Amino acid sequence: MRRTFLLLSLPLVAVSACSDEIHYHSHYYGAAGEPAAAGEDGEPPPVAGAPAGGAAGAGAGAGAGGEAGAGAGAGGEASVEYPGAPVADVTTSEHELDVFGVVGNRYWFAVSDAERERMNQAGGGLGGDGDIYTPGGDGDPTFVDHLWVTAFGPQGTTADYGQVQTKVVGESTYKPWDSRHIPNFNIDSNQFVAKQHIGGYEHLRFGNALVGSIFRERLTLQLYRELGYPAPLATHAWVSSNVWGPDVAIPYVLVERYKARFCNDNEAALGGGCANMWEFVGDFNNGGGHGGPILEAADERLPAAQVSLFDNPANCQFETCDAGRVKELEQLLAATPEGEGYKAALDGWVAWPEFHRFQCLSWMLWVGDDTLHNSNNVVLVERSDGLFQYLPYSVDISLGQDWYQNTPLTGSNVLARGCQSDASCWADTIAVCEDAIADFAALEPVKLLDHIYGELEEQGMLRAGDEARYAFLSAWLEARVAGLPAELEEFRELAVCEEPMVDCGGGICDYPENCGVECAKPGREAAGDLAPCALPENYAVGK
């Protein structure tokens, strides 16, 4: 069967960095997209299973509000500045903590009002000022005065990690850190204490799971790993803070960040490790990725200082990145025509088996706000073997979440379109998808969901509406397993587009002005005020 695909041109900024939206007492979307009920007077609702006053459900060995369990206080003193904070009973070097192997560790952030205000001002968001100059420049790193961490379990101990660099993060999902909102946090544990790690990790991300519910991000990342694709570790943890009051503990999703440890732990799946890593929004060729020529800095259509996305040091996930080879790939992509031989032309550059599986899993799990379908949440690794590979990132919009329904197998970024235009490459994609579908069915994903549900229930982390969300996900996964083989057949032969739509690449049909090139196509010069495109010779309207 041939299938015609119509891309909906959605504003990229409307859904960027979606996993960072935190607002505990509203906008907590379930299966039908309805927010959970707020607590009285708009305050955060009490945690299910928590004792009166909003304290967290007492996990084994943990006291109310995240205080340390048995043995706490031996050798430590209660904080005068931050009442209700835990009491450290071991040093950080003595602290035994399994960050991702258990559910229910507790993190207690103590922050001054002045430093919290700095975080909120630096946090960004699409509604931020966006000024290119600010008083004092970028300023010093923002931090919490203390981060107490209590290990889960009857013998769980508490350590005070002191000042820890902490950022309030998010774009369209940004929320300030105050008594009525809950932000996402990124932390760096050794900014102020050299070589300090928390349970072996320097970088951690805390998210409220607002958009994808408490289930999706952790489950989707686990599905990637179980299906043979490298992805970050994730778990659930309690988070407390003086900002919300000593008796409030909130369930968060805790996710490993893409840093050096991830590369070391997954080196076998990453060609020996990572030489360089970038995270960004966009595509090759200055975000266009359409196979046109790389614009030079002097070109009037190119904003100053944006010769390549890879020239921006903020996109590098390591201390420094060498962009030499990735920019050579960028030039090669611009010069390589779509069609027969596309895959062969990029042998030695693209990790094609991994690319095929990445594309299959994105479709199977409905990860729509991603590299392939929205040029968003892009993580690109230059592997130690010289090949380039995408990694899944910010996957809370997945598994039937209502912002991106019916994510297609076909993608719209430059590599996806090129492969889709090459019959041999596309046949390889279909073959990999057939194997991935079989693996998915054998995995029995509903059982993985059931396990997560059981852990959350035991910890008292389920909230109003989560029963319905769990039921929706369970039914969705069951239907997905059953329906994937037939749906794959619809993609086996890609369609020829009907006028006035054109092939934007690889059988993806859309109107010419929506093909991702911000200029006028041949014959469309009168459409708006766009300058004519400098398109490659192989481009053809109505292909």
Written account of the structure:
The protein is an alpha+beta fold and 543 residues long. The two termini are 19 Å apart. The strands form 4 sheets. A 9-stranded mixed beta sheet has the order 4-7-8-9-11-10-3-5-6. The protein has a 3-stranded mixed beta sheet with strand order 2-17-16, with no helix packed on it. The protein is globular and about 70 Å long. Helix 6 (352-364) crosses helix 9, helix 9 (423-443) packs antiparallel against helix 11 (466-491) and helix 10 (445-459) packs antiparallel against helix 11. The protein has 11 helices and 17 strands.
Series of H and E elements: EEEHEEEEEEHEEHEHHHHEEHHHHEEE
Name the average pLDDT.
Answer: 79
Note the total helix count: 11
| Percent range for β-strand residues | 5-15%
The class by helix and strand makeup works out as: alpha+beta
How large is the radius of gyration? 24 Å
Q: How helix-rich are the residues, as a percent range? A: 10-25%
- Unreliable spans: 1-74, 126-134, 289-306, 517-543
Question: What overall form do the CA principal axes indicate?
Answer: globular
Number of DSSP strands? 17
